[in-house]
Write a structure and sequence with these properties.
- By secondary structure, the chain is an alpha+beta fold.
- It folds into 5 domains: 8-107, 3-Layer(aba) Sandwich (Rossmann fold); 144-205, Dna Ligase, domain 1 (2-Layer Sandwich), CATH 3.30.1490.20; 208-452, D-amino Acid Aminotransferase, Chain A, domain 1 (2-Layer Sandwich); 461-543, no CATH class; 552-630, RNA polymerase II/Efflux pump adaptor protein, barrel-sandwich hybrid domain (OB fold (Dihydrolipoamide Acetyltransferase, E2P), Beta Barrel).
- It contains 17 helices and 38 strands.
- Helix 4 (93-101) packs antiparallel against helix 5 and helix 12 (400-412) runs antiparallel to helix 13 (423-431).
Length: 632
């Protein structure tokens, strides 16, 4: 139990982390309450709270990023403390100050510590003074394009542009050719302002094949600062972590002790309290460099909890309530191995485009040594407004081999239907020989993903028969023995024409498909234009073929119209072309923001821009025409 300072905790977050914190609060006798947006009115996390209040519409800027509304909600609900979770306002010093000014306890570090570590520029300067090694680069106050360009030329390529206030890969760009430096700089600054309200950046030498190693920190207000070992977080896509594990195969006890001491010194450099994470880059030569400090609970905290048998949410609440840590550094010894896989709503077969829609099925099998931190269930709506992560699948084993085997079997038996997810990618990673060998640098996916062939068409006979079964299930009301019905659909660009004849409880197929199938819509979603089925864990989208047209020339013209469409719903950030402009293939046309990330929409062919149908700030639906390109 925690002291009576905290009786009712407002969780200023959503999804799986809100569920996780609510459980942790209850376990120490605290009542969890929260907030929600219109997009989350029916979300799972609301059901695990004792009470919750609406704070605004779906966009995060009008709800979860509105600190004043959240503090007002805490007052309305009678909370005496606020836990920010991760993301959103968790590392905003002004929010921590708002909470304190309202007479509430902020479950996290002080506003001053957040501000110091929230600026990557200030953080590098501070830890450097405490003897912590940092990556060579530029972190000066002069943010002019001219100065940054000059510093970039001095550092050379490969170069990393990184938002000073950033995190999660946003506001970050790798530059291999200085000719594209300014374009990358503008894009990084724009994304940084959108995500963090601050466009300051720093430049660093980009390490080609480092490991991303982070250390978990706990510190109380009584002078004790400890580390709970490392997490290996090197497997990343677009700087977003995919697989994490603890401990790391790259660290022996001596290196663990050295990096742990550096992490503790980094925390002490700002008088840090509560839970936090110090991140390092570990180069191939064994040198390590301070990267940043995250002044919050990390997404991947479960692997540390399983290996060190410490509940980090409990410890956060105790520290916030004024207690001294009951742990000593010599008590903290790793036991076994833990791995976490982030299950995201994104399609590996189509360049990992974020997905939204309804989860028709969601089943992660539970077994000894398997933990699921989820913010969704079957029937949940996945919104376009927030991060694409659906759940975290975490396993523990007595050693790394046992943990990998447990994760492999868990992912194999996991079913998600209704929208595409990165489940095929996660399976491919844990099946990979390089992963099993521990060869996991930050370039792992760049080097290994092409071997996974996730973008290659895998729509075979089984997938087509599954689509046919789903279509037939739509019309079970008109089943009549001996009567045949046409079944036509388009999948992976191929039109399938079949004929189905009712035969008892089954259907007999002929034409492009042959054999018997059972009408079955289990785990599928559909609409007027088509639907999605799941085959071996992968989502397969199908559509009805277009109606026949006698105007063949018109159809051919439409196919070659040059319409460039939005790959997903989102907000137009910028438009790079005007009508009449001549563009080359792959020229930037539009920048689209969806699920907190910017996406470049490029010209599929060279030609002349005939029409621009969107403008900055406009919300567009998936499939909406953005730009039309004609012959030059």
């Amino acid at each position: 139990m925690v002291p009576p300072l905290i009786r009712r905790l407002l969780i200023a977050n959503r999804g799986e982390i809100a569920v996780r914190i609510a459980r942790g609060a209850r376990e120490v006798g605290i009542s969890p309450v929260g907030v929600y947006s219109d997009a989350d009115e029916h979300a799972l996390f609301r059901r695990v709270l004792d009470a919750s209040v609406r704070i605004g519409p779906g966009p995060a800027t009008e709800s979860y990023l509105d600190g004043e509304r959240i503090v007002a909600a805490a007052k309305t609900l009678g909370a005496d403390a606020v836990h920010p979770g991760y993301g959103f306002l968790s590392e905003r010093a002004h929010f921590a100050q708002l909470v304190a000014d309202a007479g509430l306890t902020f479950v996290g570090p002080t506003p001053a510590a957040i501000a110091a570590m929230g600026s990557k520029i200030d953080a590098k300067r501070r830890v450097r003074e405490f003897g912590v090694p940092v990556v060579p680069g530029y972190d000066g106050d002069d943010q002019s394009v001219e100065r940054l360009r000059a510093e970039a030329e001095t550092i050379g390529t490969p170069l990393l542009i990184k938002a000073s206030a950033g995190g999660g890969g946003r506001g970050m760009r790798v530059v291999d050719d200085l000719a594209r430096f300014e374009e990358s700089l503008i894009s990084a600054k724009r994304e940084a302002v959108s995500a963090f309200g601050d466009d300051a950046v720093l430049l660093e030498r980009y390490l080609r094949r480092p490991r991303h190693i982070e250390f978990q920190i706990l510190a109380d207000a009584h002078g004790t600062t400890l580390h709970l070992g490392e997490r290996e977080c090197s497997i990343q896509r677009r700087h977003q972590k995919v697989i994490e594990e603890a401990p790391s195969v790259a660290l022996d006890p001596e290196l663990r002790a050295r990096m742990g001491r550096a992490a503790v010194e980094a925390a002490r450099s700002v008088g840090y309290t509560n839970a936090g994470t110090v991140e390092f880059m570990l180069d191939e030569d064994g040198a390590f460099y301070f990267l940043e400090m995250n002044a919050r609970l990390q997404v991947e905290h479960p692997v540390t909890e399983l290996v060190y048998d410490v509940d980090l949410v409990h410890e956060q609440l105790r520290v916030a309530a004024g207690e001294a840590l009951r742990l000593r550094q010599d008590m903290l010894v790793p036991r076994g191995w833990a791995i976490e896989a982030r299950l995201n709503a994104e399609d590996p077969a189509h360049d990992y485009l974020p997905q939204s829609g309804t989860l028709a099925a969601f089943d992660v099998p539970r077994a000894p040594g398997v933990r699921l931190d989820a913010g969704v269930e079957a029937g949940s709506e996945v919104s376009v407004y927030y991060d694409s992560m659906l759940a975290k699948i975490i396993v523990w084993g007595v050693d790394r081999g046992a943990a990998i085997a447990r994760m492999r079997e868990t992912l194999r038996a996991t079913t998600v239907a209704g929208i595409a997810t990165n489940l095929p990618l996660l399976r491919a990673i844990v099946d990979d020989d390089a992963y099993a060998a521990g060869d996991t640098t930050t370039r792992f996916l760049e080097e290994r993903a092409p071997l996974f062939a996730l973008g290659r068409s895998a729509v075979g006979e089984a997938a087509k028969r599954r689509v046919a079964a789903a279509i037939l299930a739509r019309g079970t009301g008109w089943r009549l023995a001996g009567v045949g019905v046409p079944v036509a659909f388009v999948v992976d660009g191929t039109t399938v024409n079949a004929h189905a004849t009712a035969a008892g409880s089954r259907w007999s197929l002929s034409g492009d498909l042959a054999g018997d199938v059972e009408a079955d819509a289990t785990g599928t979603t559909d609409d007027a234009t088509g639907g999605t089925v799941v085959v071996d864990g992968a989502a397969v989208r199908w559509t009805f073929p277009p109606p026949p047209s006698a105007d063949g020339e018109h159809a051919a013209h439409a196919a070659a119209s040059g319409d460039v469409t939005a790959p997903m719903p989102g907000k137009i950030v910028s438009v790079a072309v005007v009508p009449g402009a001549t563009v080359e293939e792959r020229a930037l046309l539009v920048v689209l923001e969806a699920m907190k990330m910017e996406h470049r929409i490029e010209a599929p062919v060279g030609g002349t821009v005939r029409e621009v149908r969107v403008k900055p700030g406009e919300l567009v639906a998936g499939g909406a025409t953005l730009v039309t390109i004609g012959p030059a």
